[in-house]
Specification:
alpha/beta, Purple Acid Phosphatase, chain A, domain 2, seven-stranded mixed β-sheet, 8 helices, 32% helix, 23% strand, binds manganese (II) ion
Length: 268
Amino acid sequence: MRALGTPILDLGTTSGSALLISDLHVPADGGVVLVRLRAAVAAATAARADLFVLGDLFDSYVCRAQVRHGVWRDVAAMFAEAAAAGVRIVLLHGNRDFLLGAEFERHSRARVVAGGVKVVLGGVPTLLLHGDELCVNDLPYQRAKRWLRSAPVRWLARSLPLAVALRVAARARAKSRMVIASGDQSRFLPTQAAVAAAFAVGVRRLVFGHIHRHAHGAFGDGDYWILPAFDEAGVGLRVDTAVAPLAFAPGAGPPEPTAVPPTFPFTA
Ligand SMILES: [Mn+2]
């Protein structure tokens, strides 16, 4: 099964609750987002919830060697500890960390999914995407995505020595910031037709991140939730029979319910 070219993994039905977070962009030096991530992992552990990370967990992840170093090793260890306590962790590839592979699965005991996930959450058939595939008007990005994720490029990048990989990643981030800062912003946003195509895989709920806007609304006979960037807002989504945005304060403590966000004006 595919949605907008993205392979979709069907995880069947989960009982109990799930915590969804997206776009953490954990930087090489860790920072405050690690404190929030720890709070989210602790909340999932306490609630015996599944934890879904909808992509861009890391600011960048390029080579296999990374999982044995620095913040990448620390996050993997944090996840492995939660997994040992019974938390199922599912990690979607984002556009910044689509090179996460089997070595990260081994160290983190998380399932890394190179695409989206279809899963029944709280009784509702739901599609989880990173969300970059919904921005179909960004033609340069969609073209680059195809060759960047081709087998030879992936193999080459994942084999790089750590120091080289980090330089490559820094250059890619700088280029991306320049593109984002220049010109018309609307091509970076999801379209109505793309969202409709995502629902067409047979779901009544769509959850994604990537565009860093917190939003929620009805779509056809279903609904959508757009997760904000977790490193900016510290907000995730608890899904069981109800859906509730939760705020994770940097000062630890349990998460607090936060306001339901406004609808998103999808472009035509
Ligand atoms: Mn992204």
